[in-house]
């Protein structure tokens, strides 16, 4: 089992915690991680882009000039792609970009992402994270104490004070064990978890 340090809100080491190898010590499957990221980004796409082909542009039914004898190149319609105001060749049409991944693939990808963060020493465990009031400065002080900037902060419960204190800090996002995903884990330089969040993740994914 991997052992990582546990820090308090002042950034001081107060102990260690053993991470479950079934979640934080698996063999990293880069293919599944890549697939999970592509899946998430693809599922976000609206797919509403549309342009008209030559058959959909209004007008252009009459041949602009006779076939021969004008000195011009032969033309059949003023709505052909080479004309201004003409249709678009292979025009994009609305489509659904989303695709599905199996549950086992999603879990394996998430475990791989978490394991990669442990291997790169980019996973920090906090003893606890609680604020008496909504204070952006208080959250910033915690991050400064841990010497992290671009971070994904994962707490077990949806603590309003923590969420709202982190909301105005650029490159910082909060999440719950049930809402973490591969894209966010890889997007942020550091993953900061509370001890309770670690236990909750291990309980669900182990």
UniProtKB/TrEMBL annotation:
Gene3D superfamilies: 3.40.1370.10. One of its GO terms (biological process) is translation. Residues 44-87 are annotated as: Disordered. Coiled coil: none annotated. Pfam families: Ribosomal_L4. Keywords: Ribonucleoprotein, Ribosomal protein, RNA-binding, rRNA-binding. Belongs to the universal ribosomal protein uL4 family. This is Large ribosomal subunit protein uL4. It comes from Murimonas intestini.
């Amino acid at each position: 089992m991997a052992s990582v340090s546990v820090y308090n809100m002042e950034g001081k080491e107060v102990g260690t915690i053993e991470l479950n190898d079934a979640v934080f010590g698996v063999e990293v499957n880069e293919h599944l991680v890549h697939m999970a990221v592509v899946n998430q980004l693809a599922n976000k796409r609206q797919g509403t882009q549309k342009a008209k082909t030559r058959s959909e542009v209004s007008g252009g039914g009459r041949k602009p000039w006779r076939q021969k004898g004008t000195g011009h190149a032969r033309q059949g319609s003023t709505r052909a792609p080479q004309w201004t105001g003409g249709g678009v060749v292979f025009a994009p049409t609305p489509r659904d970009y989303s695709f599905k991944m199996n549950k086992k693939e999603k879990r394996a990808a998430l475990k791989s992402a978490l394991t990669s963060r442990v291997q790169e020493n980019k996973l920090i465990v906090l003893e606890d994270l609680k604020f008496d009031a909504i204070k952006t400065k208080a959250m910033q002080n915690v991050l400064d104490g841990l010497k992290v900037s671009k971070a994904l902060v994962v707490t077990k419960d949806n603590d309003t004070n923590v969420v709202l204190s982190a909301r105005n800090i650029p490159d910082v996002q909060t999440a719950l064990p049930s809402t973490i995903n591969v894209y966010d884990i890889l997007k942020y330089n550091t993953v900061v978890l509370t001890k309770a969040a670690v236990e909750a993740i291990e309980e669900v994914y182990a």
